[in-house]
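example protein:
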Amino acid sequence: MPHDNYLFTSESVSEGHPDKVCDRISDTVVDAFLSEMPEARVACETLATTNRVVIAGETRGPETITHDHIAHLARLAIRDIGYEQDGFHWQHAKIDVHLHAQSADIAQGVDSAGNKDEGAGDQGIMFGYACRETPELMPAPIYYSHKILKLLADARKSGREPALEPDAKSQVTIAYENGKPVRCTQVVLSTQHTGDLSSQDVRGIVEPYIMAALPDDWVNEDTAWHVNPTGKFIIGGPDGDCGLTGRKIIVDTYGGAAPHGGGAFSGKDPTKVDRSAAYAARYLAKNVVAADLADRCTIQLAYAIGVSEPLAVYVDLHGTGKVSETAVEKACRQVMNLTPRGIREHLKLNRPIYARTAAYGHFGRAAEADGGFSWENIDLVHALRDAAR
């Protein structure tokens, strides 16, 4: 029997969380290379700790992107996040850059040559998911966890809430009845702050933003609140906890409501199917639901390094399909070229659009005029309907 009445929890972390600082820097490096050369290759990892940033990885691109320039861009990213603290300051942090040339062994498997199309940058499995729980066709718990933190970040950066600092985490538990989200039973919010503020003081600051983020009737007298439950939160960010690129992959995707293949996104150019194929899978799943072919859709894509065509396309409609999974699998292959090159060209991914994805989720965001979040468009609806029926 389906489990229709239950509680489900998802978390998010802000752009000032130490891992997200690293994601932002790594994606800033990706954007820098793609700005100069759309076919550049980047695999960039970042570590951040007390007034120290280490950037390492492999690249193939123009020599104009020097180590000094990358360090400068990292400082600008840290400044934009808002770090001007004694333990982590955009001006004073020591930044080491250890990027080197991409492996020739990897390049030969990925590059096109003769009659061989570009292959996948690595083996792996990638998942996409969509459902009707929110207008953005995202699971409600992760969507609202992101929204809470984004509203607080906007208030902090605008100067409306000067007591808030960049590092923050949110978590919401949502009750489902008959398989649909109906109310919030638990709210967890921890935010770095200035001054001698109690947990109650912080709740007074953040509660209006949390209420604005959640649907009107989802919070009542039975909702439990946990705001800065450990007490003061003054030391935060990389000064309080070491950060690494790619350590928040569930925050980046569906909050645990759908599978994740395991690969991180940030720091990778779009030849890496960890990133581009996960975007394609979300794009297809969202269009399947928007086309009213199902109320829920999970899509898995599988690749092998150096091989252009996906090894498999798997669809699960979770018992909500108006057509068969087999029909949707065939339709997905028909309406979109799922080779690495085909994905990049269809979604126009060889552009500097990635730093903005580093916090508040890669999915459930509005498609932007310059091509950012192109995988959130629902422009395959008619093609999928025709192909699946």
The mean pLDDT is 95. The chain is about 35% helix and 25% strand.
